[in-house]
């Protein structure tokens, strides 16, 4: 795992964070540790399932603003992802996810927490 510090002009806050590789040596996404809280991982967009079809369209202006921000300073708030049996499910962060897609970025920073099939069923209700 590598540590990065993003240095910006004095009027910006500095934040250090850790990221891990987006894939393992065999090409599969990394797994979430069995115990402990959420971890922040860089995951390929195509490995994140989005099982709930949008009930409303994303706000195009918000997506555009996020695209500009991500282009300039990167994603500041990871999307929340649930990992169940090695599969990743995203239920929020729709605007950030779409901004990454439209920018052609292959990965997105995710706060991943491990869940059970019952947890997944709860999210699908």
UniProtKB/TrEMBL annotation:
The keyword Nucleotide-binding is assigned to this record: yes
Enzyme Commission code: 1.8.98.2
GO MF annotations, alphabetized: ATP binding; sulfiredoxin activity
Entry keywords, A to Z: Antioxidant, ATP-binding, Disulfide bond, Nucleotide-binding, Oxidoreductase
Record domain ParB-like N-terminal: where: 41-120
Coiled coil: none
Reaction catalysis annotation: S-hydroxy-S-oxy-L-cysteinyl-[peroxiredoxin] + [protein]-dithiol + ATP = S-hydroxy-L-cysteinyl-[peroxiredoxin] + [protein]-disulfide + ADP + phosphate
GO biological process, one term: cellular response to oxidative stress
First-level EC class: oxidoreductase
Domain of life: Eukaryota
Record's GO cellular component terms: cytoplasm
Statement: the UniProt record of this protein carries the keyword Repeat: no
The family this protein is said to belong to: Belongs to the sulfiredoxin family.
Protein name: sulfiredoxin
Encoding gene, per UniProt annotation: LOC105175880
């Amino acid at each position: 795992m590598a540590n990065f510090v993003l240095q910006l002009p004095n009027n910006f806050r500095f934040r250090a964070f850790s990221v891990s590789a987006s894939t393992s040596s065999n090409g599969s996404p990394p797994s979430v540790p069995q115990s402990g809280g959420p971890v922040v991982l860089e995951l390929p967009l195509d490995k994140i399932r989005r099982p709930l079809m949008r009930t409303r369209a994303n706000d195009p202006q918000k997506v555009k603003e996020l695209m500009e921000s991500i282009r300039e300073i990167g994603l500041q708030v990871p999307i929340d992802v649930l990992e169940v049996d090695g599969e990743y499910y995203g239920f929020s962060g729709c605007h950030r996810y779409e901004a990454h897609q439209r920018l052609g970025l292959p990965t997105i920073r995710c706060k991943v927490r491990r869940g059970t099939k019952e947890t997944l069923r709860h999210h699908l209700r």
